[in-house]
Amino acid sequence: MTVEDEIEIMGQRLNDKIKKIFGRSLHIREVDAGSCNACEVEVNALSNPIYDIERFGIHIVASPRHADMLLVTGPVTRNMELALLKTYNATPSPKLVAAMGSCACNGGIFGDTYASGGGVDRFIPVDVYIPGCPPRPQAVIFGIMVALDKLPQKIKKIEAKP
Amino acid sequence: MNREFIAALKKEFGNNILDEITSLNETYLTVKKEANVKICDHIYHHLDIPLVSIFATDERKKDGCFKIHYVFSLDKGDAFVIIKINVDEKSPRYNSITHKIATANWYEREIQDMFGLVPVGHPDPRRLVNFEDWPDGVYPLRKDFDIKTKPPRVEGEYVYRRVEGEGVYEIPVGPVHAGVIEPGHFRFSVAGEPIINLEIRHFYTHKGVEKLFENISLDKAVFLAERVSGDNSVAHAVAFCQAVERIAGVDIPGRAKYIRVVLLELERVYNHLGDIAGIATDVAFAMGAAHANRLKEEILQLNEKITGSRLLRGMNTIGGVPRDIGDKKDEILLTLSEIQRDFRELMEYLMSIPSLMDRIETTGRIYNDTAKGLHVVGPVARASGINRDTRRDHPYAAYPETNFKVSVQKGGDVYARTLVRADEVCESIGLIEQALWSLPDGEININIGEIPDGYALGYTEAPRGETLYWVMIENNSIVRCKVRDPSFCNWLAIEYAVLDNIVPDFPIINKSLSLSYSGNDM
Ligand code: SF4
Questions:
Q1: What pLDDT, on the 0 to 100 scale, is given for residue A162?
Q2: Fewer beta carbons within 10 angstroms: which end of chain A, N or C?
C-alpha cells in the first residue's frame, strides 16, 4: 500500500469521526515545548499536498483560543514551562491534549534534568500519547483519532456539573 | 601552512605562549590569560582567520582550573589553531574579546551562564541560556553540578534594549508563535512600517544537551547528536562520530564514507527544498509552496525506504554506518533524477513570478562585512559573498574524492539565499550520484572498541552550515562535548537583516535564514 492509500483510508475515518463529534472541523494548536524540531517537520508534513489533512477536517490554528486540541511536542524545558501553562489555560474547555513524540511522552532522550521537564503530563493533563521520534505523519493522524474518542466523555462531565 | 602559521605566531607572541600541542590538524596553544585579547585580535584581524567557536572546560580535578578555548579555522590549509587560557576558580574572570571580535558575544555569555566565568568588559553581560528565574551561583556545566538538580525559581527581570522616540512602538512576538515553528521571542521596535530595531531572545528550548553528553554512554551519544537539531540529524551525528573516530585515530571503511556523503546530501536536499517552500509560503504563493513541499516529501519518503527513517536517523555509528544502502542505488538514482527535473522546472517558474521576485529581491539584506563580523556560516554566508564550505575547506568523509561547486552570491538578500540553495540542491544531487556510482566495496563499519583518552574536533557542513563538535574522552566516556550548531552563529544576523524592512517581510527574512532554535538553544 502506498503512503497515499494509507492516508486516504485513515483520512476518511478521521473525517467521519470529526464530522460526527463536531459537525465542523477540528482545530488544533501546535505547541513546541522544547522539541528538537523534527516533530515540527512531521507536523508541517501533514499540511503538504501528499497528506493535506485540512481536507479531512483538521485545521491548524494560530491561537490556542481557537483550538479544540493542543498538540504538544518536546520534553517541556524549564524555559518553556510557563509558556506551555499559559497556552493551556488560554485554550477553552473541553480541550484535548496530545503529547507527540517520545520527548513529549516521557522526556525521551532528554529525560528529566535541570533543563528538561521529563514529559508533558508532568505539567498539564494529557489525553493521548503518540510515540515515535519523530512519529510518522500516519501515527499523528491515528493519535488524533484516539484522542477524539475521549471527547464525548469530557463533554458529558462538563454538562453534568451544575 | 599550519606549521608556518604557528612559527609566525610564536615569533610575535613567543613569551606569552606557555604550551603547544599538535595532534592531527589541530594545534593547541596555551597562552597567558592576560594575552588572550591581543593574540585573538591579531589572528582574527591581522591574519584574517575566522573564529569558529569558543568554549570552556572544567578541568579543575586534573589541572586545578577552567580552560577557555578559542578555535580558529585555517581554511586554506585545512587546519585549526586553538588558543587556550587557564582560568582559576578563585578568580573566575578573564578579559572579554567581544569589543574586538563581535562573534564572541554569545559564546562569552554562554560560558558565563554555564561555567560562571566572567568576561570582564563584555558590552552586554546579561543572562543568555539561563533565564532570570535561575538562581545566581549555579552553573550547569561545572563538574560539581548534578544533572538532576532542579534549582528553585527566583525573582528576576530580563531587561530588553529600548528604542524611544516619537511614534516608536514595540511589537513583542513569541515564544509561542502562530505557525508551526519552534519557540523564541522577538521584540520589534517599529516606527510606522519599517523595523528600526529587533532584539531576539532565545534559549527557550534549552534541554541541557551538553551536560547530557557527559552523562550517557558513547553509543547512545550518537542518538543524542541526532537530536540536537532534528532536521540536521545526519550532519550532527557525523560530526560527533568523526570527532570520536579522530580521537581513536581510526580511518573508517571507504564504503561508509561514501554512504555518509549520500546521507548528508539527502539531508541537504530535503532541507533546502523545505526552505524554498517556506519562502513561497511566506510570500503567499501557495502553488509554488505546494510544489516544493511535494518534492521535499518525496525525499522524506525515499529516506524512509532506504533507511527506515524519514529523517535518516540511526544511520551513523562510531566507526561507520550500521546499515548498507548500496542495494537501493537504482531507486535513489531514479527518484533523484525525477526530482532534479521537476525542481529545475519549479525554480524557473518561481523566478518568473513578478509578485514573488518583488518580495524577495533586496529584502533582508546582510552585507558582506556584517556577515563576516558575526561569522555567519552556510548558505546564508555564501549568499553574502563569503566563500566558505567545510566540505571543501576541511574535507571529510568521501568529499575529497568528489567534485562539486561551491555556490557564492553577492546580493545578501532573500533572493541571493534562494539562489544559493537552489544551486546547492542540484550540486547535492550530483554528489549523491557520484557517491553511488563510485561506492567502493567492503565493510561499512569497524569495531573501534575502547576509545583512548583524548580530544578532537569533528566537523561537517550541515544544510545550515559549518557544524562543529569538540569531544573530550576519558576512561571511554565523554567528559566534555561542545556542540556549535550553525544557527548559533547565524541568529544574530537577523537583527541586522531586518533593519529598514517592513514587519510583514519578517517571516520571509526569517525563513530565508533557515534558523534552528533547538540547535541554537541546545
Ligand atoms: S520526540 Fe524525537 S523528534 Fe520529537 S522532538 Fe523529541 S527528539 Fe525530536
A1: 67
A2: C
pLDDT in tens, B285-340: 999 999 999 999 999 999 999 999 999 999 999 999 999 999 999 999 999 999 99
Residue B10 CB neighbour total at 10 angstroms: 14
Measure the CA–CA gap between B462 and B459, rounded to whole angstroms. 9
- CA-CA distance, B357 to B279, in Å (whole number)? 11
Q: Select from B93, B120, B147 the last residue of a domain.
A: B120
Integer Cα distance of B517 and B495 in angstroms: 15
Tell me which chain A residues have a C-beta less than 8 angstroms from the C-beta of B517: 37
Query: Taking 80 as the threshold, does the pLDDT of residue B79 lie above it?
Result: yes
Quick check: B1 pLDDT over 70?
no
For residues B78 and B221, membership in a common domain is answered with no
Encode pLDDT of A19-69 as tens digits. 998 889 999 999 999 999 999 999 999 999 999 999 999 999 999 999 999
First to last CA, chain A: 50
> What's the CA gap between A53 and A13, in Å, rounded?
12
DSSP assignment string, B369-409: HHHHHTT--HHHHHTTT----HHHHS--TTGGGS-------
pLDDT digits (tens, 9 = 90+) for B130-185: 999 999 999 999 999 999 999 999 998 888 888 888 889 988 888 988 888 899 99
Nearest to A122 by CA among A69, A81, A70: A81
B404 min Cα distance to partner chain A (Å): 28
pLDDT of residue B192: 87
Cβ atoms within 10 Å of B281's Cβ, excluding its own: 21
pLDDT > 90? residue B240: yes
Q: Ligand 1 pocket test: which of A32, A102, A105, A112 has the largest number of ligand atoms within 8 Å of its C-beta?
A: A102
> Nearest Cβ partner of B207 from A41, A43, A115?
A115
Counting the structural domains of chain B, the total is 2
Average pLDDT over residues B200-218: 95
Q: What cell does B60 get?
A: 579543575
Whether residue B104 is found in the same domain as residue B233: no
Q: Which of B5-19, B242-256, B274-288, B342-356 has the lowest mean pLDDT?
A: B5-19
Q: Residues B278, B510: contact at Cβ < 8 Å?
A: no
Instruction: Single out the residue of B362, B363, B409, B402 nearest to residue B383, CA to CA.
Output: B409
Cα four-point dihedral sign B360, B362, B368, B369: negative
Nearest to A69 by CA among A122, A127, A19: A127
The CA distance from A28 to A62, in Å, is: 9
Q: Which residues of A touch B230 (CB under 8 A)?
A: 35-41, 134
Q: Which of B87, B120, B153 is the last residue of a domain?
A: B120
Mean pLDDT of B385-398: 95
pLDDT attached to residue B4? 84
Residue B72 lies in a domain: yes
Residue with CA at minimum distance from ligand 1 atom 6: A103
Q: How many CB atoms lie within 10 A of CB B152?
A: 8
CATH 3.40.50.12280: does it fit domain A24-160?
yes
Closest CA to B382 of B354, B357, B410, B361: B410
Residues of B in contact with A72 (CB under 8 A): none
Residue B458 has pLDDT above 90, yes or no: yes
Quote the pTM value.
0.96
